[in-house]
Design brief:
The protein is of the alpha+beta class and about 500 residues long. Helix content is about 30%, strand content about 30%. Strands 18, 19, 20, 21 and 22 form a five-stranded antiparallel β-sheet that branches. It has a four-stranded antiparallel β-sheet with strand order 1-25-24-23, with no helix packed on it. A hairpin with a 4-residue loop joins strand 23 and strand 24 (about 445-450). Helix 2 (about 40-55) packs antiparallel against helix 4 and helix 4 (about 90-145) packs antiparallel against helix 7 (about 490-500). The termini are far apart.
Length: about 500
C-alpha cells in the first residue's frame, strides 16, 4: 500500500518540474502613436526667434524719428525762404542765405529718401513676416495633434487660470505703480548712437597746437549762451595759462575771438596753470588739472581767482596713469574733467584702486568740494578717453586711425557696468586727446591733432537731426597764412554765422 502511494507522488513531482516558469513569460507591445518630430519642433522654435529679432520696437521708433525730423525741417525751410525774401544786402548775407536754403533742401531730400527706403523695407518685412507667421501657425497646429493626452492643453489652461487669478488679486489690492522704474538720470532715454562729424575745423591756428580742448558752458553766464571756449596746450603740448573765447561757433571757425585770451597766470607753467588737455567749463569757471598737483583747479572768470580741490591720497598725476592704446599714451591725461546735465565730474585713478577708473562728482563752490565717489572695474590705461552724459560714464578705445569705439558704460544711478556698448565714432584725425559732452545741444566736442570736431549724440527719446553726413562749403574767411582751412559746416552752423555776422 505504501508503494502505491509513492509512485503517484513521484509522477506529480515530475509533471510539475516540466511546466514552464513564470519568469519566461513574454509579452509583445505595439505603440499605436506616431513618432514625435523633435526636429520639426526645434525648427519652429528657431523660426519664432527670428521673427522676434526682426520685429522690434527699434524699427517702429526709426520711422517715428524720421517723421519727427521732417516735421521740424519743413518749418525751418519756410523761415529760411522768408528771410531771403526780406534780405536787403545783395552781397555776403544773401549768398549765405542761399547756402542755408540749398543745404536745407538737400537735407530734406535726403530725409525723404531715407523715409522712403525705410517704408519700403517695413512693407517687405511685414509681407515676409505675415507669411512666416501663417506657416508657424500651421506647423504648431500640426504639432498639437501629437498631444493625444492633452498635456500641453492642460498646461495652457493652467497658465490662463493663473493669469486671471493674478488680475483678480491686482484688482482687489490695486496700487499706483510706475509702468517702468527709472533706469538713469537721463531725460532723453538711453544713448543710442553718435552721428557725424557735423563740424570739422582747425580754427585760426591750423596745425599749430596738437593738444587742447574746446566746447560750450552748460551753465553760461547771462548773455554768453552761444559762447565757445578754446584751450590750447602751448608749452610743450603739456601746459597752458590762458583760455580763448569766441562769441559764436562761426566766430571760432573763422578765427574771430571776442574778448580774446583770458590769462590764468602770466607764466607757463607755474602754480595753478593748466596741465593736460582734459578741461571743461561750467558756470563761468574753468575746471582743469592743476599744474604738478593731484588736484582740480577752478578758475573763476569773473573774479579772476583760482581755488583748488585736492583729490584723495594716492591719486595718480604727472603723467603716471594716462589714457592709452596699444601704440601710445596721451601725456598728462591722468585727470579727466567732464560735464553733463548735473554738473562737473572728475575721472581719475589711485594706487589703492590698482589703476581702475574712479569717478567723483565735483560740487560747485569756492572752493569746490568732492561729492559722491564711484569705483569701476575698468583699467584706465585700457581706455583712450571718457565722457559723462546723463549721469552715465562712457569710455572709449582706439580701434584704428579712422575709428574710435565707445565700448564701456557705468550708470551712477544703478551701479550697472556694461562692456558691450559698441558705438563707433568716425574720426577726422588719428587721435582724440579731449572728449566732452555738451548737454546744451547734446553734442560731443572733440579735440585731437589740432582739429576741433563735433558729433551729435542720439538718445532714444529724442529724434535725431539728419546730420549723419557733413556738408562741405567754401570757407568764409582765410587764415593768417592765406590758405583756406578745411571746414565742414552743417545747416545750423551756417544759420548761426548768417544771424550773428
Amino acid at each position: 500500500m505504501k508503494l502505491f502511494m509513492i509512485v503517484p507522488l513521484f509522477a506529480l513531482l515530475t509533471i510539475t518540474q516540466q511546466a514552464p516558469s513564470l519568469e519566461e513569460c513574454l509579452c509583445e507591445f505595439t505603440n499605436s502613436e506616431k513618432v514625435f518630430p523633435h526636429d520639426k519642433l526645434s525648427s519652429v522654435g528657431d523660426n519664432a526667434s527670428k521673427c522676434n529679432s526682426n520685429i522690434n520696437a527699434q524699427k517702429t521708433l526709426e520711422m517715428e524719428r524720421l517723421l519727427q525730423s521732417l516735421e521740424k525741417r519743413l518749418p525751418q525751410l519756410q523761415e529760411d525762404v522768408s528771410v531771403l525774401e526780406r534780405e536787403d544786402d545783395g552781397d555776403v548775407y544773401a549768398v549765405l542765405s542761399l547756402y542755408v536754403i540749398e543745404n536745407e533742401l538737400r537735407t530734406i531730400n535726403q530725409l525723404i529718401e531715407r523715409l522712403n527706403r525705410t517704408t519700403q523695407a517695413h512693407l517687405h518685412l511685414t509681407t515676409n513676416t505675415t507669411q512666416q507667421l501663417e506657416d508657424l501657425r500651421a506647423e504648431m497646429q500640426e504639432l498639437e495633434t501629437y498631444d493625444t493626452m492633452h498635456v500641453m492643453k492642460t498646461q495652457q489652461d493652467n497658465k490662463r487660470l493663473q493669469k486671471d487669478l493674478q488680475q483678480c488679486r491686482g484688482g482687489l489690492y490695486s496700487a499706483a505703480q510706475p509702468t517702468q522704474p527709472p533706469h538713469s538720470k537721463c531725460p532723453y532715454g538711453q544713448l543710442l548712437n553718435i552721428t557725424g562729424p557735423t563740424l570739422t575745423t582747425q580754427g585760426e591756428y591750423p596745425g599749430s597746437y596738437q593738444y587742447g580742448a574746446w566746447g560750450r558752458d552748460p551753465k553760461p553766464e547771462t548773455g554768453k549762451g552761444k559762447w565757445h571756449w578754446l584751450v590750447m596746450l602751448t608749452s610743450g603740448d603739456k601746459f597752458s595759462n590762458y583760455v580763448r573765447f569766441y562769441s559764436s561757433l562761426s566766430s571760432l571757425i573763422v578765427g574771430v575771438s571776442t574778448p580774446g585770451n583770458v590769462q590764468i597766470h602770466a607764466s607757463n607753467p607755474t602754480t595753478n596753470t593748466i596741465q593736460g588737455p582734459n578741461v571743461v567749463m561750467y558756470g563761468g569757471a574753468l575746471y582743469y588739472n592743476c599744474y604738478n598737483q593731484a588736484a582740480v583747479c577752478r578758475f573763476n572768470f569773473t573774479a579772476k581767482t583760482v581755488t583748488n580741490l585736492q583729490l584723495p591720497k594716492g591719486t595718480r598725476f604727472n603723467s603716471n596713469s594716462n589714457f592709452c592704446h596699444l601704440e601710445a599714451c596721451y601725456p598728462f591725461t591722468d585727470l579727466d574733467l567732464a560735464t553733463d546735465e548735473s554738473g562737473v565730474w572728475v575721472i581719475y585713478t589711485t594706487t589703492q584702486d590698482f589703476g581702475n577708473l574712479v569717478l567723483s562728482k565735483v560740487e560747485e563752490g569756492e572752493p569746490p568740494r568732492l561729492g559722491q565717489t564711484w569705483r569701476t572695474s575698468i583699467f584706465k590705461k585700457g581706455v583712450t578717453n571718457t565722457f559723462m552724459a546723463c549721469g552715465v560714464l562712457y569710455a572709449t578705445r582706439y580701434v584704428s586711425k579712422d575709428v574710435e569705439e565707445i565700448f564701456y558704460s557705468f550708470d551712477t544711478t544703478t551701479g550697472e557696468e556694461r562692456f558691450n556698448i559698441n558705438i563707433f565714432i568716425n574720426k577726422v584725425s588719428p587721435n582724440i586727446h579731449a572728449l566732452n559732452y555738451s548737454p546744451v545741444d547734446q553734442m560731443l566736442h572733440v579735440y585731437g591733432d589740432s582739429y576741433m570736431v563735433s558729433y551729435k549724440v542720439v538718445f532714444a527719446g529724442v529724434a535725431p537731426m539728419p546730420n549723419d553726413q557733413p556738408t562741405e562749403v567754401p570757407d568764409l574767411e582765410s587764415d593768417s597764412s592765406g590758405e583756406n582751412d578745411h571746414t565742414f559746416l552743417d545747416i545750423e552752423d551756417l544759420w548761426d554765422y548768417w544771424t550773428t555776422g
